[in-house]
Design a protein that fits this description.
The structure holds 4 protein chains of 4 kinds. By secondary structure, chain B is an alpha+beta fold. Chain B has 22 helices and 51 strands. The chains are: A alpha+beta, B alpha+beta, C alpha/beta, D alpha+beta. At the B-C interface, strand 6, helix 3, helix 11, helix 12 and strand 32 of B face helix 1, helix 4, helix 6, helix 8 and strand 12 of C. Bound molecules: flavin-adenine dinucleotide, nicotinamide-adenine-dinucleotide (NAD), flavin mononucleotide (FMN) and zinc ion.
Chain lengths: ~110, ~1000, ~425, ~210
């Protein structure tokens, strides 16, 4: 069971208090009407789904009812940071790649 | 019967407290402090069960969690049956009833055993994949017999009288295992002031110290244990959990501990001080800052011929039975070993006054202290030898000891048969790396120790003692103390100095790798050498698997069932993979282990479920009028978590009669509905209107204060996902209603868009679902009735349709909305929920002259359907757009902002003209009610598979219309008015219906607007 | 291929089972294949088998990064049924069901397909409507299905708590009697053995790390054992499909989630069918070994750890005890997780991709085991001809642009 | 006309029924064991208001302080003055609890003080929730059975208040005194919570206080 730091409440809470809400940083197109079917389909359905660092949206459903972002490793499930909506992640796959950090262990598949 | 194997002295049992129990119908006696296994051994019970596949007699092998054979059914009554209890881990209690799980007619004379001997040859690993294919129709018959033969114990057939609960624990340091390493760790962490939990699955704390012959500070090791426990008990932040198995290590240092509170006491848990049932077991859900794993090591048996005959045991288990339980499971011992540590069993055996026939040590020149001690006491030590075969059918009669070349896998001497009744073996020690590996961390092989130790872990954990490969007692104590101190320090707690007890000085020599003992014959022809006793997996089976191409350790496991049993391979896995590695010509490290998963040992379903069952399975939500509904005989419908009155039957009425009566009452008089469950969201802020514009499909710019409007909500894909009426309370203030089931979803949806997309919009949303209770008065006489109890001017011009007013209803401040879901003149009265029951009762009272009829959701559904009003989720699924519902009127095509849903409903597929569209369906036979869900076709004569063109979404008999009617979606239906569709039913009949407008009643809407 | 039979077992017993042949070879990769299948799960192996056996394409390799059948195939709860709602999926799953019915003989390998019946319990009025809708659609599609009322359910499923006192009383159920279970491992091994016999190279411990492309078309795969050329590539990697798409340079409408299951200790027969409940949220069957095989829903976040969250297990067992109170004293032996590739409409993607000659078969999510033979068959047909098989065509990626989704969500109960 | 609708929703002369009215707590008073480890009391029919606004805006924070007599509490805390308490729920959300019948005045006071320029919201939710007060020596155990939130005093001192998971639902736990805790329970869940609490408390003995 994950232990997640809510950046609004300022403390770690059990996963049961949260609801995952999918990939983060997918802004709604400013002018949907101008999107082609491809662009709109891409916005609606297509996801990064990475093995590794993932920026995702969570809702502190039982706590402050606020959404926030988390950078989580999808194999080790380690959460490297959480940050508020509108903020940018400090930890990214690109940054890690340049540091050449190995994948967290526990990779089984 | 006498306890013939009970030693006269010693052990941690209370001879003054005899306990009666039965096994396979026989009555026996044991002592307080016994495990079920030790009590059986004390009574000389050899055969404990029959093996799974070959039905061979089996006896007790181990003394702990690794026991594969002594897996018994216990329980004196039907309701208290527990299948597959490990006798080694079950404390004896008075009146315990146990039986074997296999063996017919009895374990001693088992007919299946004959079958096993004959048929066993036909049952190599994976045999079932190779046969029973012809004729395919017969597989189900074969399967029935296979199923009968398989399985161990049986489930009770009556409901459990016991309860189970959960406790959420938090600590700085969780120490798993209370052997020397764990006790030292807990001490170090506890003294630092940290919050510490110490859990051990045993009946007592102490681990290996409970039966060791080693001393601490020159005294019995258990004295030190008692002293440590006393100190730990005195520390306020230390929690001791006995009989508590840490069964799973989950992400982010979340662990579960399965504690057996009452299993040692009797059939069912006792009653507590307040006369209520205490929990039988408790699941602790622990979040730990640091975890110290001090789980020790399991001894491995050696794999030799007929090593499953009762009387073959682990060396360490023999010691445990002797020293802890004062039970001698035999008279004449042959010990086979590859290490020094096992010699203590020979010494213990001698101490008990029993005969050690010989020790067969595979090593050529063992010189360790214990070895020398044994020699000094006259023990015959045969070096370079091992036990290669055992004789005896129901009990060991002799063991053949021969010289072997363990590297070349050869027997190098003919050996000799040594008469004995007990063969103890030790093939080394496997650290209990289970918990350390639950999160995927792979254990690492250490050739120096001949053991897998915990691999790198990314969780915040430390390992100490034998699990860490630190086998020596003194070192284990130091390792434990260090780990406990480090764990606490990592959290920020300082510890004092260590003062650990003094241990004996001994010389201990390395062990020599031996897993499967060679035999003169090739493995496939040698006497059966069992690796996994529970699943009858033999060395030959493993070799066969590798020969057939199963080269991955996981393939070997799955093909042979190695480690699949209730012991999860604690006894056999390492031997099995060593055998597989050898037969593939690779190293053990390369072979690797199979995946370790929770549970460490099996956990009761009830304990995992906790109190979240029976009435507490899930919350049931009630409105403020629930007490009245109950008093007035309502039948309830589950809608989301709510219990809603479905209909209010009068004596003798079925649902149809009740609903027909309720419908008539609303259409001709007045009815009252509890509509409190509708979601209600208070929306405040200068941008509230703009927000509504974006989130609803229709336009909100022009809705005046005092007015209300129906709105449709779509997802970005253009599919309808909720609807409801929103009222403008003031310029910057709206009250939105949602469907009952959708309330939470919609609020979350609004928050999602506000928080992540449009934070610049000044608006706040607050749920007021529970604050307002809603009662709907509906029917032509509702105005008259309401006027009796309100000061609001109900005149049609003063209070027109789709508007709302504030005023007193029954003396309570109310907001009354003139909106209608039935098509009749209706008032939705909203009052603060604390006063709702009073208002409701006043309305009922005032309604008597009007024959005011309470109605439920079923009537509401009929009435709204007569009007063609949709119910989201019933008339829609996630593939229906507003246009499909013929509700294009609710789509603001000219709104400036590209609101949610607009782009989605303008995709290639959503623009198709022949989409399924919602229409009315009028059965040609007015008495026939189309089943809701029935599929529709244009041509009922076509052959199967038929081309389906839609389905019925809502369907009723209308008391008002005098005929049945329905709504449904039909391909291109809106352009097919007057055409026929057919519903071919399960019973072969076909209902024919005409496609009509979905508004069956009062199409002009005059009745609601009077 | 050494044929398997009862007589064969007897014959081999005379030589102490020392002469069983390998079920498959351990070949070294050829430089180039007509078709390379990435992923040696049930679907990939079935695809290879039908390619070689039915469609005459014999120069085929299956490239598997671990051991054959070690992905979701090894960890699923083995429910087989074909009672899907929408025509497109119903036809596809029914195609698979027909193949199941003759599969053991076709492969000469007992996959233990056991049509013991699959119940979907209904607990609300909407459940009942959905059930009627599904059964009605199934029957008109030629798929067996029945709708039972509460009394019939109580009579047919012993020990199920059908009393009115439960939180969500049972109102009825659907039953597909041809549905049931099969032995997951046997399916992978049976296909592997038969594919190998038909000439397919099964390359284990071979991980695809990239796709080599020329002019927008794939020409082979990079692996940890070097480059392997291919005229066509079919990717069948379930939970790892999103990752494979990234390697190929595009994205999919897929998220990979943990899905867990658990087994009890082995018991004497007590549950003789498959029982699933959406409202209470759990499902259960009993394997031939005697363990109760239990599962429920997915964890909500992306996860490649092959493990899920403990509260999910708790909720699942709460559901099981709620449905079968007698199981309260039974004990859970092992829990595990898989990585399921979920799509927005809970239907698979069998499709061409933006890369020419590169085909994907994925998105089976929580319910693809039952489709194994059908999926392999239609995918093989598509790979053999380059034209999508008629049953596969509706499952193209294009539907996520046009909007022609095949939404099985609402109708499928717990989708396994 | 004001941009928002402010409405006195409580009748002055009628008795209300709290969410646990049907449970008949009053009849249970004095019936529990004297040695009960858990004591429960419903603090019913109080005025509950949800307050929304921007805490960083001094005119909002100052206004609230002025109107309520309590300063806006920081995250996860509770501030009280007499019978009035103000609790942080979220960065832009607070729960104001005032004595029964004072909620309308409190809202008016807030609105008067905060004025009409500022963007904020005040919502009366008095009918939608109730306060259950738990005391006694086993309260912590009872809470540990119910929530995975850490209720150890070192982590959950007096004056802390958190929204969290509880049994199978969510609520707010407030630590109001050494041995006294409060649960803010939604009306429609009150029956479930009451059933849960009785069950969880059974082991320690439960007494109901008036
Ligand atoms: C717990 C659980 C329960 C389920 N229950 C059911 C059920 O009851 N009924 C049902 O019908 N379905 C069920 N499913 C779903 C079902 O298991 C899957 O849909 C199905 O097994 C998928 O088969 P597959 O062959 O596509 O995938 P897999 O068996 O996962 O095979 C994919 C293979 O691709 C390999 N691979 C991945 N990446 C690479 C690479 N880069 N290079 C080479 N190889 C690679 C993997 O190692 C794996 O072996 C369940 C799933 C789970 C997890
Ligand atoms: N010299 C050798 O070759 C050798 C080999 C093996 C063991 N030993 C002896 O083993 C001891 C090592 O001490 P130790 O403290 O590491 O181990 P230990 O075996 O004394 O204690 C381990 C404890 O952990 C408990 N445990 C295991 N898994 C658990 C779980 N999941 N949940 C709860 N409890 C669990 C066991 O019940 C046991 O009480 C020393 O006494 C040492 O002499 C020596
Ligand atoms: C249908 C089915 C039945 C299973 N039965 C058992 C069982 O009886 N005993 C057991 O230990 N594991 C059983 N397993 C679980 C496997 O041991 C293993 O956990 C699972 O295949 C996932 O692999 P992994 O744990 O190695 O990752 C079963 C798995 C499946 C899919
Ligand atoms: Zn928060």
């Amino acid at each position: 069971m994950l232990h997640i730091f809510c950046p609004h409440c300022g403390e770690l809470r059990g996963e049961e208090e949260f609801a995952p809400a999918g990939q983060a940083h997918i802004p709604r197109p400013l002018d949907p009407a101008a999107c082609t079917d491809e662009e709109w389909g891409d916005y609606l359905f297509f996801r990064d789904n990475p093995r590794g660092l993932h920026h995702e949206l969570w809702l502190h459903a039982a706590g402050c009812r606020k959404y926030f972002n988390a950078t989580r490793h999808t194999i080790s499930y380690e959460i490297l940071e959480t940050y508020k909506i509108g903020e940018k992640p400090d930890v990214t796959a690109e940054a890690q790649a340049s540091e050449k950090k190995p994948l967290a262990q526990g990779a089984t598949a | 019967m006498s306890q013939k194997n009970r030693l006269p002295r010693g052990g941690r049992i209370d001879r003054t407290r005899p306990l009666d129990f039965t096994f396979n119908g026989q009555r026996y006696q044991g002592c307080d402090g016994d495990s079920l296994a030790s009590a059986l051994l004390a009574n000389g019970v050899d055969i404990i069960g029959r093996s799974f596949k070959y039905s061979r007699p089996r006896g007790i092998v181990a003394a702990g969690a690794e026991e594969p054979n002594a897996v018994l059914q216990i329980g004196a009554s039907e309701a208290t049956q527990i299948p597959n209890v490990r006798a080694t881990q079950q404390a004896l209690y008075d009146g315990l009833v146990a039986s074997s799980t296999n063996g017919w007619p009895s374990v001693d004379t088992d007919l299946m055993g004959i079958l096993g001997r004959v048929g066993g040859k036909l049952m190599p690993a994976g045999f079932y994949y190779k046969t029973f294919m012809y004729p395919s129709s017969l597989w189900m018959t074969y399967e029935k017999y296979i199923r009968k033969a398989a399985g161990l114990g049986r489930a009770p057939l009556e409901n459990d009288p016991d309860i189970y609960d959960h406790m959420n624990l938090h600590c700085d340091v969780l120490v798993v295992g209370a052997g020397p390493a764990g006790l030292a760790a807990a001490l170090a962490a506890g003294r630092s002031g940290a919050r510490v939990i110490l859990a051990d699955e045993g009946e007592a704390f102490g681990g290996s110290l409970l039966d060791t012959r080693e001393t601490l500070d020159g005294k019995r090791a258990t004295d030190w244990v008692d002293q440590v426990l006393a100190e730990l008990q005195s520390l306020p932040e230390v929690t001791l959990l006995p009989r508590a198995t840490v069964n799973g290590y989950h992400d982010h240092n979340f662990l579960t501990i399965h504690q057996r509170l009452a299993d040692h006491l009797g059939e069912t848990a006792p009653r507590g001080a307040f006369a209520q049932q205490l929990p039988r077991q408790r699941m602790h859900r622990v979040r730990a800052g640091r975890v110290v794993l001090a789980t020790g090591a399991h001894e491995r048996p050696l794999v030799y011929g007929n090593n499953d005959v009762p009387g073959n045991m682990l060396a360490g288990a023999v010691t445990t039975y002797l020293r802890r339980y004062a039970v001698a499971p035999g008279k004449k011992l042959v010990l086979a070993t590859n290490n020094d540590y096992a010699y203590r069993t020979a010494l213990d055996w001698l101490d008990a006054g029993l005969q050690v026939v010989a020790v067969a040590d595979v090593r050529h020149n063992p010189r360790g202290s214990w070895v020398e001690d044994a020699r000094a006491r006259g023990v015959r030590v045969l070096t370079g030898c091992s036990v290669i075969d055992v004789r005896g059918s129901k009990r060991v009669e002799a063991a053949r000891v021969a010289a072997i070349d363990a590297v070349a896998m050869k027997v190098t001497s003919p050996g000799e048969w040594l008469e004995c009744d007990l063969v103890a073996s030790s093939g080394g020690y496997s650290p209990v790396v289970h918990l350390a590996s639950h999160l995927g961390g792979r254990p690492a092989w250490r050739e120096d120790l001949l053991a897998f130790v915990p691999g790198e872990g990314f969780q915040k954990r430390l390992c100490a003692g034998a699990v860490n490969g630190v086998f020596n007692l003194g070192d284990a104590l130091a390792d434990g103390f260090e780990a406990g101190a480090t764990a606490a320090a990592q959290i920020g707690f300082k510890h004092g100095a260590s003062e650990l007890p003094r241990t004996e000085k001994r010389v201990e020599e390395p062990s020599f790798p031996l897993f499967q003992v060679p035999h003169e014959k090739p493995t496939a022809r040698a006497p059966k050498q069992f690796v996994d006793l529970q699943n009858d997996v033999t060395a030959a089976g493993i070799e066969q698997a590798t020969r057939e191409g199963f080269e991955s350790v996981e393939h070997v496991k799955r093909y042979t069932a190695l480690g699949f049993g209730t012991d999860q391979g604690k006894l056999g896995n390492i031997n099995g993979l060593a055998i597989a590695a050898r037969s593939l010509g690779i190293g053990i490290a390369e072979m690797g282990t199979t995946m370790f998963r929770p549970n460490y040992t099996p956990v009761t379903f009830g304990a995992v479920a906790g109190r979240h069952c029976d009435g507490l399975f899930e919350p049931a939500r009630y409105t403020a009028m629930q007490a009245w509904h109950l008093r007035n005989g309502a039948e309830f419908e589950d809608v989301g978590q709510w219990k809603r009155p479905w209909y209010f039957p009068r004596p003798g009425e079925d649902i149809h009669a009740a609903v027909a009566r309720e419908c008539r009452a609303v259409r001709s008089g007045v009815g009252i509905l509890d509509a409190s469950t509708l979601g209600k969201i208070d929306i405040q802020g200068p941008d509230a209107r703009e927000f509504l514009n974006r989130i609803y499909t229709n336009a909100w710019t022009k809705l005046d204060v005092g007015k209300a409007r129906y709105g449709l909500m779509c997802k970005e894909d253009g599919m309808v996902f909720d609807d409801g009426v929103t009222a403008c309370l003031a310029d910057n203030h709206f009250l939105m209603t949602t469907t009952t089931g959708g309330a939470a979803r919609v609020l979350q949806w609004l928050e999602l868009y506000h928080q992540t997309e449009w934070p610049e919009l000044k608006v706040y949303f607050t749920s007021v679902t529970d604050h307002w209770a809603t009662m709907t008065l509906s029917g032509p006489r509702s105005r008259e009735l309401l006027s009796q109890v309100t000061d609001i001017d109900l005149d049609r011009d003063a209070f027109p349709f789709m508007s709302w007013k504030e005023g007193l209803v029954g003396g309570v401040p109310a907001r009354v909305f003139r909106i209608s879901f039935t098509g009749e003149l209706s008032y939705e009265v909203n009052v603060q929920a604390d006063y709702a029951l009073g208002v409701w009762e006043q309305l009922i009272e005032a309604g008597k002259p009007y024959d005011l009829t309470p109605y439920g959701t079923e009537t509401m559904h009929v009435l709204r359907a007569e009007k063609g009003f949709i119910i989201v989720g019933q008339d829609t699924d996630a593939s229906v757009t507003p246009d499909d519902l013929n509700m294009g009127w609710a789509v603001g095509r000219n709104k400036p902002f590209s609101w949610i849903g607009w782009r989605g409903m303008n995709r290639a597929d959503t623009l198709r003209e022949d989409r399924k569209q919602l229409v009315g369906l009028k059965p040609v036979d007015p008495q026939k009610v189309l089943p809701e869900g029935a599929q529709l076709v244009f041509d009922p004569e076509q052959s199967i598979p038929m081309t389906m063109v839609g389905h019925v979404t809502s369907s009723y008999m209308s008391a008002t219309l005098g005929h049945s009617f329905a709504m449904g979606v039909v391909k291109g239906g809106l352009k097919r008015m007057g055409e026929r569709v057919f519903a071919p039913l399960v019973d072969g009949s076909v209902i024919e219906a005409e496609i009509v407008s979905s508004v069956f009643y009062d199409p002009k809407g005059e009745r609601q607007n009077v | 291929m050494q044929r398997y039979s009862g007589f064969g077992l007897f014959k081999h017993s005379l030589s102490h089972h020392e002469n069983w042949q390998r079920m498959w070879r351990n070949p070294t990769p050829k430089p180039v294949y007509d078709v390379v299948i990435v992923g040696g799960g049930g679907h990939g192996l079935a695809t290879a088998y039908y390619l070689a056996k039915t469609f005459g394409v014999k120069n085929v390799a299956v490239v598997e990064k671990g051991w054959l059948g070690g992905g979701n195939t090894a960890r699923n709860t083995t429910i087989v049924r074909s009672n899907y709602l929408w025509d497109e999926s119903a036809h596809l799953y029914e195609h698979a069901m027909k193949l199941w019915e003759g599969l053991s003989r076709d492969l000469n390998y007992n996959v233990m397909y056991s049509p013991r019946g699959v119940y979907n319990l209904c607990h609300t009025l909407q459940d009942m409507r959905d059930a009627e809708r599904r059964v009605s659609a199934n029957r008109l599609n030629g798929i067996d299905g029945e709708l039972l009322d509460a009394a019939q359910v109580a009579a047919e499923i012993p020990y199920l708590d059908c009393s009115k006192g439960t939180r969500y009383p049972v109102m009825g159920a659907t039953i597909q009697r041809r549905g049931g279970v099969a032995r997951h491992d046997a399916v992978a091994w049976g296909y592997a053995r038969a594919a190998d016999a038909a000439g397919v190279d099964l390359l284990q411990q071979t991980e695809v790390t990239g796709f080599r492309k020329e002019n927008g078309a794939v020409i082979g795969v990079e692996t940890n054992r070097g480059f392997i050329g291919a005229r066509r590539v079919g990717v069948v990697t379930a939970g790892n499909s999103g990752h494979m798409a990234r390697l190929a340079g595009f994205r999919l409408p897929i998220e990979s989630h943990p899905l867990q299951a658990l087994v009890s200790e082995p018991l004497k027969p007590i549950i003789d069918s498959v029982i699933m409940s959406n409202a209470v949220h759990g499902y259960i069957s009993q394997s031939d070994k005697g363990d109760l095989v239990i599962g429920a829903g997915i964890d909500g976040y992306v996860g490649y750890g092959q493990r899920g969250s403990y509260p999910t297990i708790e909720h699942t067992l709460q559901a099981i005890v709620e449905m079968f109170p007698i199981l309260s004293r039974v004990r859970m032996n092992r829990q595990w997780g898989g990585i399921v590739d979920t799509t927005p409409d809970a239907c698979p993607i069998i499709s061409r991709t933006p890369v020419q000659n590169l085909f994907f078969n994925c998105g089976w999510g929580t319910g693809g085991f039952k489709a194994t033979p059908g999926s392999g068959h239609v995918f093989a047909a598509s790979l053999a001809t380059g034209q999508m098989h008629a049953l596969a065509a509706p499952f193209s990626i294009d539907r996520f642009y046009s909007g022609a989704l095949i939404d099985e969500h609402g109708a499928a109960a717990v989708a396994h | 006309m004001s941009a928002v609708n402010v409405y006195e929703q409580r009748p002055s002369h009628l008795d209300g029924q709290s969410p646990l009215h049907h449970a008949g707590l009053a009849e249970l008073v004095g019936k529990g064991s004297a040695s009960a480890g858990i004591r429960l009391r419903e603090r019913k029919l109080l005025g509950h208001l949800v307050l929304r606004g921007d805490a960083r805006d001094p005119s909002f924070a100052g206004g609230v302080h002025k109107a309520c007599g309590v300063e806006l509490p920081v995250a996860l805390t509770l501030a009280a003055a007499g019978e009035t308490s103000l609790q942080w729920l979220a960065p832009d959300e607070w729960l104001l609890i005032v004595p029964q019948g004072e909620e309308f005045a409190a809202e008016q006071r807030l609105r008067d003080t905060l004025g009409s320029e500022l963007h904020y919201a005040v919502v009366n939710v008095s009918g939608g929730q109730t306060l259950l007060e738990l005391s006694g020596e086993n309260v912590r155990e009872l809470l540990m059975k119910s929530t995975s939130y850490d209720v150890h005093p070192s982590q959950f001192p007096v004056g802390k208040a958190v929204g969290t998971h509880f049994a199978k639902t969510q609520l707010v736990i407030r630590h109001t005194g050494e041995d006294t805790w409060q649960l803010v329970v939604r009306r429609s869940f009150a029956d479930y919570i009451w059933a849960w609490l009785q069950d969880a408390a059974a082991e320690y003995g439960l007494a109901v206080d008036a």
